[in-house]
Amino acid sequence: MTVVGEAPASTAEARRSPVRAIVGWVVVGILVVVVAWVGLQVAASAPGSYRSLDPESARGTGTLALAETLRDRGVEVEVVRSRIDAAAALDDDATLVLANPYTLTDEGVADLLDPASRVVLLSVGAHLLDELDLGSYAPGVTASVEANCDVPEFARVGTIRPDQLLRPSDGVTGCFGEDGAYAVLIADRGDTVISAVDGSRLFTNEALADDGNAALALALLGQEERVVWYVPSLEDSDIEAQTPDTLGDLTPDWVTPAILLLLLAGAAAALWRGRRFGPLVAETLPVTVRASETMQGRARLTARAGDAAHASVAVRDGTRLRLARRLSLGDRANVDEIADAAADRLRIPRGTLQALLGGPAPTDDAALIELARRLADLEAAVDETLRPRGAASGTPTPDPSTTTEDEASRDR
Fold first, then answer.
1. How many CA atoms lie within 13 A of 195 on its CB side?
2. CA separation for the pair 46, 60 (Å, rounded)
3. How far apart are CA 98 and CA 123, in angstroms?
4. Which of 101, 92, 122 shows the shortest CA–CA distance to 226?
5. Is residue 396 part of a domain?
6. Percent share of the chain, pLDDT over 90
7. How many other C-beta atoms are found inside a 10 Å radius of the C-beta of residue 404?
8. Does 71 score more than 90 pLDDT?
9. Which of 132, 138, 142, 144 could link 167 by a cystine bridge, Cβ 3.0 to 4.6 Å?
10. Looking at 1-10, 122-131, 319-328, which range is the least confident one?
11. CA 310 vs CA 33, 336, 354: distances in Å
12. In the chain, how many domains are there?
């Protein structure tokens, strides 16, 4: 019996192609670059890039419907995206409309609002409220509210459902609220009237038709003949970029040379002490290993270890496999099936051979030898019953009953 090891179809198939490996790494590198670029674009995108409160956006968060409504009422709407263009377009009969100018410094906001006679802030931050001395954010339940103020423009607005309430500062009028929390703030500064409202939902395309939102928007933005609508963006910022301190700036001067020296020392140590692999050794396949060599090698290991229990398992497995094949039971027959079939063949009571084929393992060499002898006698007895009468060297076949009794007594 020979054991033949499988070999790959060819050495070329077993060895990965360098070209395929290079192509794979190139594809991985491209994917990493693309993902990094997309992440940077998303991280650098400002809220204005999504066109929130943009008068030229038809999305749900845009305000194109409000701009068209103003035009239908005879108000000229000019959309600008530069603070310089906004300052140039402003005059005495124009209203400056803008969202929170988050991209401008405090000086830039002051320069932008200075030439306007009427300013409407469609969204405000806490810093802008404090900088313009308008008030602060206020808690409260945003239920439907009426004007509750003496501003004549709001007399026919009706009710609105604001999202954010504001607490006015001294000298600032609050409308559409109660108990010191209002949705609209109006500050009359003499030359300039500043109105602030959180219109991030009230004036959008998807909510303009709700309640009195449209009437409130016309009351705030439709008081003059022209509207200059400034859309803040990162491209129109006056904030000077400042380079943050790097790790090299924060560490002493000797740290960088020391790190480079350690890296060079590590590379030199790797080249000096690193294991050098020689050329691959080609082995001729397939390889034929004799079964007798494998059997003898395992037997020597078992004998050297003195493992009688392990050896008995191998002996019993071999006996059970051979008996199962001789008795036509198949290779998957269990111990009880083999023992019962052998007992029926030898005409002895069932249950007699279970301990012999599957009992406790021997603990020493003497018990192992005795077990092996009894298993060999059992196989010989079964073989004897399978032979035709008178077929063994011309001698008469012994009486089955006598043979069965002898084998049974010997097993006992």
1. 25
2. 18
3. 8
4. 92
5. yes
6. 14
7. 18
8. yes
9. 138
10. 1-10
11. 59, 21, 19
12. 2
